[in-house]
Amino acid sequence: MAFNNKMVLITGASSGIGTEFARAFSKKGCKLILVARRADRLHALAAELGTPCEVLPADLSEEKEVLRIAELTKDQKVDILINCAGFGLLGAETAVDLAEELNMIDVNIRAVHILTKIFLEQMIARNSGAILNVASSAGLLPAGPYLNTYYATKAYVASFTQGLAAELEDMRRNVYVAALCPGPVNTEFTAVARGSQWDNGISAEKCVSYAMKQMEKGKRVIVPGFTVRAGLFFSRFLSKKALARFVGRFQKKKAEGR
Ligand SMILES: NC(=O)c1ccc[n+]([C@@H]2O[C@H](COP(=O)([O-])OP(=O)(O)OC[C@H]3O[C@@H](n4cnc5c(N)ncnc54)[C@H](OP(=O)(O)O)[C@@H]3O)[C@@H](O)[C@H]2O)c1
Q: Is residue 231 in some structural domain?
C-alpha cells in the first residue's frame, strides 16, 4: 500500500507510538486527524507537523465519545485508521482497581472494536483503505501475570484483527487490516501503568518506521525488533504454564518498580 497524501486518523496521537505515527505519516504528505484526551499535546503536535491536521480531543473510554469521533469524520474519507490509544496497569489482579480496569477494557477493546467496525464498513464500500490496530506482543502470548488484564485486552485485539484480515482476503476486498504487536517500547506506557521503565525497550520512532515498512509489504501481524520476534518464536517450545510463570516474573519486577 502507498501512503502518500492519504487522510489518516490516529488515536493516541498525544504521546509515544501514536505521536511517531503522526510524524511519519505527515512526512509522507498525509493529512491527519489527531485524537486523544490531552488537547494541548495534540495542538502542539499539529503545530509541529508540516501537513494539515485536525485536532479532535476525546476520551475513548466513553462509547458516546468514540461514536462522536466516527460521526465527525464520516465525510472525510479516512484512508488509514491507526487505533493506537491504549494503556496497561501493572500489579497483582487483587491490587488493581476494578473501575480502572474496566476503563482499560473500554479503551483497549471497545473503542478499537467500534472504530474498526465503523471505518471498515466505509472502506469496504469504497474498496480501499487500511486499518492498523496497535495490539502488543503481549497479545500473542498465552497470559501475562501482573499485567494480566492488559495482556487479555491485547489478545482480543490481535485475534479480532487477524480474523478480520482473513475475512477480507476471503471477500477479495482491497482493504488492508493488520495488528501491530510490539514488545517493550520506551514511551509513557510504563509510567501510566505505574511501573518502572522497560530495560530493553526500543524507541517509538524505530517501532513506527518498522511498522510502516511492513504495512507497505501487506503484513498482517507486525512485530518490531529482532529480539521480540526471536522470543516469540522460541516461546512455542515452552508450555503455556512455564511461559506464564516466566512472563509473570518479569512483569512483577516492573510492578514493584525494579
Ligand atoms: N510502550 C510499550 O511498551 C507498548 C508495547 C506494546 C504495545 N503498546 C501499545 O501501544 C499503544 C500506544 O502506547 P504508547 O506506548 O505510545 O503509550 P503512551 O505514550 O502512554 O501513549 C498512550 C496514548 O493513548 C492515549 N489514551 C489513553 N487513554 C485514552 C483515552 N481514555 N482516550 C483517548 N486516548 C487515550 C493517550 O492519550 P491521552 O492520555 O492524551 O488521552 C496516549 O496518546 C497502546 O495501545 C499500547 O498498549 C505499547
A: yes
